[in-house]
Amino acid sequence: MASASLQFFAFILALFGVFGDIAATLLPNWKVNADVGSNIITAITQMQGLWMDCTWYSTGMFSCTLKYSILSLPVYIQAARTTMVLSCILSAFGICITTVGMKCTKLGGDSDSKSHACFAGGICFILAGICGLVPTSWYTREIISNFLDQTIPESSKHEPGGAVYTGFISAGFLLIAGVIFCTSCFNKQQGGWIYPPKQHHFPSAEQESNAGYNLKDYV
């Protein structure tokens, strides 16, 4: 029962991780630059994401421009696109597989099949967490290096946006969920190896007859 509750908790974490992963992939605020200027009325907030760049004006206007050309983008943005999409796909596969392998569901067949499915789902979550952690770390490193570069003007410097933090948290949720699923299956198999099932030996009919015969000789 405790293992089933732990798996359910890991499944909830994985759901949060999947939704956060998708949101981080689609949000346009991976980079944020607030340029107030000399007048607060003309203040603008520039946001750059993996798929579009958006500008929000203090007057309430909001405009976005899609990034159509892939080859013109920097390498870290291209890598972030690929790995974040891969993370979303792997986490979705993990949700489907662990739904079959969890103990609280009636799918997946016997206990061994459910254990293997749970382990495979945990591996998918771990890979998805790694794929989500790599682009966010790389993206953050590029933002910090550009921010500390003295040759870049202040108007071109950015800070990490909410999508980066969402990606970090989602990757952590997926990693924790994957480790819990893999550990629960491993503990079960290890327990079976350490404590093998006891074999009960029942005396055969011939032994019982011989024992009865010997007792009769003494009577």
Instruction: Output the radius of gyration.
Output: 29 Å
Helix-strand pattern: HEEEEHHEHH
Arithmetic mean pLDDT? 81
Strand-residue fraction? 5-15%
Biggest sheet: strand arrangement? 4-3-2-1-5
Give a quick account of the main beta sheet: strands, pairing sense, barrel closure: 5 strands, antiparallel
What's the architecture of the domain at 4-27 and 74-194, going by CATH? Up-down Bundle
CATH topology of the domain at 4-27 and 74-194: Butyryl-CoA Dehydrogenase, subunit A, domain 3
Count of helical stretches: 5
Shape: elongated
Helix percent reads 55-70%
Structural class: alpha+beta
Distance between the termini: 56 Å
The poorly predicted ranges are 189-197, 215-219
The level-1 CATH class of the domain at 4-27 and 74-194: Mainly Alpha
The tally of strands reads 5
Family: Belongs to the claudin family.
Subcellular location: Cell junction, Tight junction; Cell membrane
Protein name: Claudin
GO cellular component, one term: bicellular tight junction
Record the SSE blueprint.
Layout: H1 2-26, E1 31-35, E2 44-48, E3 52-57, E4 62-66, H2 75-101, H3 111-148, E5 159-160, H4 162-194, H5 205-218
Protein name: Claudin
Family: Belongs to the claudin family.
Transmembrane segments: 84-105, 117-139, 163-186
